[in-house]
């Protein structure tokens, strides 16, 4: 019995709905149902029963809930204790220079803003750079590491630089975000490039995303959709989407952190495409105590605070 499955069980019990729990957990309803059937089979009991339009716990389910709450709380306490030990062992009050790609600067650091502040990881100066600029900065000794995003099929290109090591922190799937009024009829929750090519598109001007768009439509021999907006103005892009004037791209991590938005739906893109966010470093990182401590703390933060996401989207 995995603690993760007990957490799923508790979410269903609180929501009294498999569909609502699947939305909150960012797991397919089919996958969630399969996990609960396996849990019931393992325990030899029925945990849920129908109640009107929803569900409720059986007597056995209520007993499991009391134990599951205690188990998951103990697990959280243990993880929190170990996490804080990792932070304290790598603690540094010095300001660390961070070279980061535009996606890391404008998405990841914004998404993690409160967490970075809470755990002292906002003590840094960030320089927004393109990937090749970060590679040059590391090669010339200006820094020992950079935070980058890269399409998964391009990670192998980093092998051209034998003095560099890339360690993923997060793996993300590119998804499509649309208003309910503009969303195509995709009952399976997926959208194809053909369907996307017929919709107005607004998306963030970022090298990896630009490369993805160009490659995807060229390889599929399709016309690129009508571009309504292509800029770094995230607020304007979101306004266009909410007003049903365009669709846009998002990713599974952003969706996980921000949760469900009113009047907005998300679609898996078919064929699916993935990119990674991670640390690009040189061997000299281990000789720079302050930069190494920052990387260790950031990695520990993501592993602890976003362990459910990482468990689902394993790298």
From TrEMBL:
UniProt record similarity statement: Belongs to the LysR transcriptional regulatory family.
Protein's recorded name: LysR family transcriptional regulator
Domain of life: Bacteria
Positions of the HTH lysR-type domain: 1-58
Keywords, in A-Z order: DNA-binding, Transcription, Transcription regulation
Record-linked Pfam families: HTH_1
Stored InterPro entries: LysR_HTH_N, WH-like_DNA-bd_sf, WH_DNA-bd_sf
């Amino acid at each position: 019995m995995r603690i993760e499955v007990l957490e799923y069980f508790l979410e269903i019990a609180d929501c009294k709905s498999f569909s609502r729990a699947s939305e909150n957990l960012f797991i397919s309803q089919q996958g969630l149902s399969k996990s609960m059937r396996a849990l019931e089979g393992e325990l030899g009991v029925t945990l849920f029963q129908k109640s009107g339009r929803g569900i409720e716990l059986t007597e056995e389910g209520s007993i499991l809930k009391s134990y599951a709450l205690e188990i998951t709380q103990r697990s959280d306490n243990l993880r929190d204790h170990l996490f804080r030990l990792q932070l304290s062992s790598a603690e540094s009050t010095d300001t660390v220079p961070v070279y980061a790609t535009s996606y890391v600067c404008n998405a990841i650091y914004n998404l993690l803003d409160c967490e970075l502040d809470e755990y002292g990881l906002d003590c840094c100066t960030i320089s927004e750079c393109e990937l090749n600029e970060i590679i040059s900065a590391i090669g010339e000794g200006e820094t020992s590491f950079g935070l980058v995003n890269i399409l998964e099929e391009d990670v192998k290109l980093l092998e051209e630089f034998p003095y560099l090591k890339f360690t993923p922190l997060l793996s993300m799937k590119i998804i499509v975000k649309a208003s309910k009024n503009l969303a195509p009829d995709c009952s399976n929750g997926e959208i194809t490039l053909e369907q996307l090519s017929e919709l107005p598109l607004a998306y963030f001007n970022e090298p990896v995303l630009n490369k993805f768009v160009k490659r995807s439509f060229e390889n599929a021999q399709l016309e690129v959709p009508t571009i309504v907006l292509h800029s770094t103005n995230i607020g304007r892009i979101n306004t266009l989407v909410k007003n049903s004037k365009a669709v846009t791209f998002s990713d599974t991590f952003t969706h996980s952190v921000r949760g469900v938005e009113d009047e907005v739906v998300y679609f898996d893109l078919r064929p699916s495409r993935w990119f990674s966010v991670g640390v690009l470093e040189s061997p000299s990182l281990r000789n720079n105590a302050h930069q190494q401590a920052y990387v260790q703390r950031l990695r520990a933060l993501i592993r602890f605070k976003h362990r459910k996401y990482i468990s689902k989207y394993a790298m």
